[in-house]
Each structure stands twice: as structure tokens, then as C-alpha cells.
From TrEMBL:
It catalyses: N-terminal N-formyl-L-methionyl-[peptide] + H2O = N-terminal L-methionyl-[peptide] + formate. This is Peptide deformylase. Its EC number is 3.5.1.88. Belongs to the polypeptide deformylase family. Its cofactor is Fe(2+). Removes the formyl group from the N-terminal Met of newly synthesized proteins. Requires at least a dipeptide for an efficient rate of reaction. N-terminal L-methionine is a prerequisite for activity but the enzyme has broad specificity at other positions.
């Protein structure tokens, strides 16, 4: 694993890493737990590579399997959205860059919410996914500090999406496939709704999770 990570770092140099796409075996395997395979500067280098790759894409999260490394590491960062209406409907607040090592989540309560989401490994498409509104996130940060917190709203969606990657699950595995839309003019309109009400009516799927 260490040799694989160091090869990625060497190949990328100061730039981003290539993001692997659906069909790549790394996206369907279970990531190996991080247990010190990389030393301090090596881990810092990997995290910096993942951070600039996520930003360059651009995206709000990236898991190590998305750059072909089957290690239970993810980075997250959300600048938020300009529309106050969208931010309120999606409970989307900006949050600063953070690192998750060996993350896991479990639902808090039984409420799920459905919104469009996409994935850097499935470019040019998006679909509606019903996710837990609140989850309990556990794991550690890059310093080994334990994490045990409740995350709600869009941040919870990102946590679930990226943690799923570490178990070999893509968002399409959980999606309402009738909602699947290309990122063209129509698809961008559906994904830009505060809630995908128009998409549900036009494409014929139930919006409220059951």
C-alpha cells in the first residue's frame, strides 16, 4: 500500500491525480483500514494530493479509492452555495477542509431526505439519492484524534457519499434511477432546484423516501 501511494505521489508531482471512473476495480473493493501504512510526511503528501485533486475537479469530497488507492481515507470541503433558498432547503452550510480516516456512519433518527447528487467518478450525470438526514460519524482525523459527532444536512450527505466509496458503493447503487439526468441544460435545471420537485413530476418518480 505504501509503495502504491508513493507511486501516485511521484506521478502527480505538484498537480492533481487522475480520478478513476466507474468500472475501475478500485471503486468496487473494500478499502484497507488506515493503520499507519504511511508515515507523517507521506500521509501529509497523500492528503495534499487528494485535496488539490478534489479542488481541481471540482468537488466537495474525495475518497482515496477514487484515485485508485484502496485505503480508508477521505477528504471533504464544501464552500456552500450562493442561493439562500437552496442552502436552506438542503441544510447546506459551508465547512472547511477536513480529513476522515477509517470513517463509519450510522443513522440518527429515521428521517431521510432526497436530493440530486453526482460523483467525480461518474462524470456528466446526476441522480436523486435518499440519504439519512443526520448520521453519527466515527473515525479519526489525520492527527489520530478520535471523531464521534452527529452531522446533519448536506454535510451528512457528503459524509455518507465518501464513506460509501470506502466500502465499494457508488451513489448510483442507492439512487432513484428514473431521476438519472445528464449534466446538460435540462439536467442542470433539475439538479439546481432547491428540492427536485419538478424532476420528480417530469420524470415520474416518487420524491419522498419510503
Amino acid at each position: 500500500m505504501r509503495e502504491h501511494a508513493l507511486r501516485l505521489l511521484d506521478a502527480a508531482g505538484a498537480g492533481p491525480a487522475p480520478i478513476v471512473r466507474a468500472g475501475h476495480p478500485a471503486l468496487r473493493g473494500v478499502a484497507v483500514p488506515f493503520d499507519g501504512q504511511l508515515e507523517g510526511e507521506e500521509l501529509a503528501g497523500l492528503l495534499a494530493l487528494m485535496h488539490r485533486t478534489m479542488r481541481a475537479a471540482p468537488g466537495v469530497g474525495l475518497a482515496a479509492p477514487q484515485i485508485g488507492l484502496p485505503l480508508a481515507v477521505a477528504v471533504l470541503e464544501d464552500p456552500g452555495v450562493a442561493s439562500a433558498e437552496v442552502a436552506q432547503a438542503r441544510e447546506r452550510e459551508a465547512f472547511a477542509y477536513r480529513v476522515l480516516l477509517n470513517p463509519a456512519y450510522e443513522p440518527v433518527g429515521d428521517e431521510r431526505v432526497a436530493f440530486y447528487e453526482g460523483c467525480l467518478s461518474v462524470p456528466a450525470y446526476q441522480a436523486v439519492v435518499a440519504r439519512w438526514r443526520s448520521v453519527r460519524l466515527t473515525g479519526t482525523d489525520e492527527h489520530g484524534t478520535p471523531l464521534d459527532e452527529v452531522v446533519t444536512g448536506w454535510a451528512a450527505r457528503i459524509v455518507q457519499h465518501e464513506t460509501d466509496h470506502l466500502g465499494g458503493t457508488l451513489y448510483l447503487d442507492r439512487a432513484e434511477l428514473r431521476s438519472l439526468a445528464a449534466a446538460d441544460e435540462i439536467g442542470t435545471r433539475w439538479a439546481g432546484e432547491p428540492r427536485p420537485v419538478g424532476a420528480a413530476e417530469a420524470l415520474g418518480f416518487a420524491l419522498d423516501p419510503t
